[in-house]
Amino acid sequence: MDLDRGAADAWFRRRGLPMVIHRRRRGAGMLRRATPGLVFLCLLDLLLSGLLKLLDVSEDVLEARMRGSGLAYVLGVLALTFAVIIVPMVAGRLMAKLLRMLHRTRVRLAVMVATIGFWVLVLPLGERLTGLVPWDDPLWLAVLTNLAALAGLMLLVRIGVGSILTWAARSAVAQVRAIGTLASRALPLLLLVVMFSFFTAELWQAVERLSPGRLWLVVGFLTVIGAVFLASMLSDEMKELKSWTVEPGAAALRGTPFDDDDDEPLPVRRTLSRTERLNITLVLFFAQAVQIVAFGALVFVFFIVFGVLILRPEVVTVFAGRESAPGTLLGVPLPVSSALVNVSLFLAVFSGLYFAASTATDARYRRSFFEPLLEDVKISLAARDIYLAHWADVRRAEVVTLEGEDIP
Question: What do you get for the CA distance between the two ends of the chain, in Å?
């Protein structure tokens, strides 16, 4: 079987598995691979500066804006917040496609140098000229900060973290597309569990009286519990992957650089290195975490809308035990009470924890949300076996039996 090594390396990077590639080849095309991330940082910095400028006003000015054009102001802030999340990812992806389309080396190099120049010099100066950043902040310090960020980005690309983060971003977009599946299969059953908690006055009173810092501390505590649970679950799941293989010419590898049209037997599974085990675990962890965050966001939006429809302001006051102030989320004003925002946030995080547990214990959840992730990793392992067997210089790993393979 004839393999294109460059295409094989790119395939593993797109799947978030750069540690499969030989360490001497991980730095290949580093500047080209870092440029989309630099475009992401440029737009994120620009849009975030605009959002912070819009929100950095006194309470009197904020209340005046809410009274004058409350709905328009809130919609504008939400639209800008949405742009902060989506636009940098889309622009980075478009830049990656552009660099692949440019076949002339000089043109491609010019685009990369222009992007670096914009990040290091043009962006800090432009933010000050447009008033997004005050001139009190030294320009030279901003330039040095951006140079340090560029060096950090290059380092992340070199060690493979950039590929994992890029894959995680694509996975997040895929989960947004699959939001209908989350809503139709996972949300209805969960609502039976948490709906009664939503109408519990004690919960409203407890959450409403938490300071913002303490509320986020509770959210962080539940998040850590969920992360520990995911890590322990993935440790068990990784042990099952070592016994999986595919037949020669199987459909699982069709359409990949490792498509085998011959009847040659697939290579014997080789021992995974520590970095490869860590890489595969991170891929599964991020994929599962993206699902959980998407589901939690769906639950949060549901309870906000449901609360607005069913709870009158006086009922919220009775539930919370006092009159509730206007709500905000990460500094973004919302046209609902803070009590409703806080309760919805708490229930969303709790629901995400419940969803994580369900994917491991409930067969229906596992079939719908977790097993597809495992199938992707299994395909990557089968491709890895072919990759290592085809290039003997990649890694002189000892061939061991499945029973002797140590996969945590």
Answer: 32
